[in-house]
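Homework help board

Subject: predicted structure for assignment chain

Our instructor gave us this sequence and asked us to write out the predicted structure in token form, then describe one feature. I got the tokens but I'm not sure how to describe them. Can anyone check?
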Amino acid sequence: MPRLKALDPQTTTGKSSELFGAIQSKLGMVPNMMRTMGNSPAVLNGYLSLSGALAEASLGAKVGELIALTVANANSCDYCNAAHSFIGEKLVHIDTKAIADAREGKSTDQKIQAALTFSRVLVDKKGLVSNADVEAVKDAGYDDAGIAEIIAHVGLNILTNYFNNAAQVTVDFPEVELVETAVI
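My token output:
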């Protein structure tokens, strides 16, 4: 049962209504997470702004979605696991094996594996990574900009994981089983 109300885009007014309109025109729907974030236009706008900025980052949509899956499973977020599984497969066109692997923080691509490993380390250590942790991701081919983007993707996903878990947002994507062994 949701702890916070998901607003109805048809009856919402003000800034949240404007944001819902932009989301609707882009996605064809307003997902429950965003409808719930809309209770605070500042929260919804902040999420959309960071998400939009990262969509233009050099890391790319595929790696961003794989990081989202790794972090969602590390944080036991049913909503994000379902949403990013759907988005990864249907919109970013990531193959189902890569999606399943990312739920466990794994990839057959060594460079992506380094990003997913670093993402899990960030979550596990609450950002207090070591020099060796940063060097490992640099050794895989990421420059400072790429590492900054990995950190930002992890931060964005921690926000959405915590929001969805705390608010108990109703999943409105095809549900996907969390990988229990991936939980940190």
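Reply (TA_rk): Your tokens look well-formed. For the description, you could write something like this. The chain has a mean pLDDT of 97. That's the kind of observation they're looking for.
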